[in-house]
Amino acid sequence: xxxxxxxxxxxxxxxxxxxxxxxxxxxxxxxxxxxxxxxxxxxxxxxxxxxxxxxxxxxxxxxxxxxxxxxxxxxxxxxxxxxxxxxxxxxxxxxxxxxxxxxxxxxxxxxxxxxxxxxxxxxxxxxxxxxxxxxxxxxxxxxxxxxxxxxxxxxxxxxxxxxxxxxxxxxxxxxxxxxxxxxxxxxxxxxxxxxxxxxxxxxxxxxxxxxxxxxxxxxxxxxxxxxxxxxxxxxxxxxxxxxxxxxxxxxxxxx
Length: 255
Ligand SMILES: C[S@@+](CC[C@H](N)C(=O)[O-])C[C@H]1O[C@@H](n2cnc3c(N)ncnc32)[C@H](O)[C@@H]1O
Known about the structure:
Elements: H1 4-18, H2 25-44, E1 51-55, H3 61-65, E2 72-77, H4 80-89, E3 96-100, E4 113-119, H5 128-135, E5 139-150, H6 155-167, H7 182-189, E6 193-200, H8 205-209, H9 215-235, E7 246-252
Parallel strand pairs: 1-2, 1-4, 2-3, 4-5
Antiparallel strand pairs: 5-7, 6-7
Helix pairs in contact: 1-4, 2-9
Bound molecules: S-adenosylmethionine (SAM).
């Protein structure tokens, strides 16, 4: 059972440091590209992003990365310190608001979200079913659900995550890695359809998580890793795509 109190205390403690991942060029460019990939099919379909609600928003970097593509953005995080950091991070963006609260219980009425976004956060949530049920209080008909989650099908990457947990004091152990297909099944059970899972991130993902000291070198390296990933995304056979670090999951609620 995930310990919500311990997870919240950890994110309260590391909030300021966490923001650095979206401030350093090398990590920010990988994180922005991942987000663009995640929402690209929605924009390509001609739909507007409209009102975005992001659950487990951290410092709310998507409000900055997607600026201009949405009407309003509301970031929710149960860590008060993360929300304070998000407000500082997005100073001057009148379209972005932040509220501290639990995604499983928060009441956002009268908000009507066109897109519910959850980046790297669902696996920290103790009861994802409760979160999905709660979203029904604030999603518009036909709203999109987009999540980015760690890929658990690759044992090498799982071993690297385990190793990171041993050395990185800012790493949360309150995580539940979804088995392949588990999250899709959960979404189906909560009446989401058009479910699509896309493997993402081979060489670029470590740059998104670690802020390297010499940005003059790190940023071009991160750029090269992104280009390599773009090539792999086109060329890798389907069976090898599971070697990715992440999975992007898209789904929709009924119209
Ligand atoms: C790994 S961080 C990811 C933050 C951000 N989305 C990003 O990609 O940088 C996970 C975040 O989810 C938040 N979180 C975990 N469970 C939550 C819940 N039940 N309700 C709201 N926020 C939650 C944590 O406080 C933390 O800020």
